[in-house]
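Whiteboard transcription, Tuesday session. T.W. wrote the structure tokens on the left side:
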């Protein structure tokens, strides 16, 4: 257990900043499971290979992830001064977002709930 007051512990934890370039897409209208199929394919790959994978992947999530990956590369180049040729996808994950609940009418006056799921997709890059 860490010693000190709770605010001191939080201050120490927040003092360590993550300087890796990243990009985050919040409230993407795709479920976590469907986004993870594409994210698993690009994890650990260099940026050019990852862009090739998402460009020719037929899934809907790949178009969102392609735009997000290009944004992360631009962040690395402009904010951190990194070389785009040396970058690779260090981390990529999708977290669960809010769910929109809709109702669809069914037989004999019943209602059927449809859940439209959202996700928060994050891509973190690093240099080799």
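and on the right, the sequence the group agreed on:
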């Amino acid at each position: 257990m860490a010693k000190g007051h709770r605010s001191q512990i939080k201050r120490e934890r927040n003092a360590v900043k993550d300087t890796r370039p990243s990009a985050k897409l919040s409230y993407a209208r795709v479920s976590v499971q469907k986004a993870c199929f594409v994210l698993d394919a690009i994890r650990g790959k260099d940026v050019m290979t990852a862009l090739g994978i998402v460009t020719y992947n037929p899934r809907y999530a790949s178009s969102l992830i392609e735009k997000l990956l290009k944004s992360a590369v631009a962040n690395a180049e402009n904010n951190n001064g990194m070389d785009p040729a040396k970058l690779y996808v260090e981390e990529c994950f999708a977290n669960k977002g809010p769910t929109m609940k809709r109702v669809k009418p069914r037989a004999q006056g019943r209602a059927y709930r449809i859940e439209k799921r959202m996700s928060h997709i994050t891509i973190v890059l690093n240099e080799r």
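Someone added at the bottom: The chain has one domain: 20-127.
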